[in-house]
Amino acid sequence: MAQAYVTETGNGGSGPDRQGSRFRRLADGWRGDRGIWRRGLVTAGVAVLLALVMLFHAQIPNGVGNLGSLIETFLPWLGVLVPVLLVIGFVRKSATALIAVLLPAVLWVSSFGGLISDKSGAGGDLTVATHNVNAENADPTGTARDVAASGADVVALEELTADAVPTYEKALAGTYKYHSVQGTVGLWSKYPLTGTKPVDIKLGWTRAMRTTVASPKGEVAVYVAHLPSVRVKLDAGFTANQRDASADALGEAIADEQVSKVVLLGDLNGTMNDRALNAVTSQMRSTQGAAGDGFGFSWPASFPMARIDQIMVKGVEPMSSWTLPETGSDHLPVAARVEL
């Protein structure tokens, strides 16, 4: 069908002809501008520096304020700078800057592009969930009810207080027949638990445990852990030394596990990119990375910026992984379905 374009007096026309003329004028303006290679050198330099940080983040030393771990915790967010630099390059009419911005853009896509797509699949034998319920949670009953509504067969809770434990036990008793609380962490299960014991992560008190879940598809060793919190301080940087030592101890315990199928649930106060968790991440897979939809950020609940609540597996195949709706905690619950 033929198309007609109406030209009003004084407006220069409309439709594809006018749009094409705009692009031609823009191209002609750039073509005749010899400064496009000299302008925007600072922007280009920032883009190259950003690319170097993305490429060599593992070489950034932790000796001063654990700078390397801090950058790795929020590494995906470096991609936010790419469109900013791109806009600056266009505004400055700098070909040098635009070409330089391609470097961090390509590196970000190659590192994190796979996390954007939905990799979840159907099937699975066991659904697990974990939630840092927050010691100051004003509605533990509602939080327990929300987590149980996920349909998880096994639920791990962290940051349990002695006063709140009876409330969680009462709220979850109807759904989960078996449970164990060790220190400030606990596990609720629809299937029997055996071999339950605390795990020493070098803190002086109990914030980790292991147990064997007798699922219909076989035994699974389940670990629950809440590694020490980290802080960002102006005078000390990223204070994570205690967390790092606990991660090493947890990694040793998992490495010594005799059951072939292992699931780790908990608040690790670190992301999969953080080298300080290598003792754990080097031997286990993230369910979110393998079978999740998006980044699965879990903290803070009001505006999630990092996935520090983890579900990791060894000898088990992740099928799907997701975050659950916000509860009365400052963390989001996370869940996964795995095939045994």
Automatic annotation (TrEMBL):
Domain Endonuclease/exonuclease/phosphatase residues, every copy: 129-331
Pfam families the UniProt entry points to: Exo_endo_phos
Record protein name field: Endonuclease/exonuclease/phosphatase family protein
Keyword set, alphabetical order: Endonuclease, Hydrolase, Membrane, Nuclease, Transmembrane, Transmembrane helix
Coiled coil (UniProt feature): none
Keyword flag Transmembrane: yes
GO molecular function: endonuclease activity
Transmembrane parts of this sequence: 40-58, 70-91, 98-116
Residues making up the signal peptide according to the UniProt record: none
InterPro entries: Endo/exonu/phosph_ase_sf, Endo/exonuclease/phosphatase
UniProt organism field: Streptomyces rectiviolaceus
Region feature (Disordered): 1-22
Highest taxon listed in the record's lineage: Bacteria
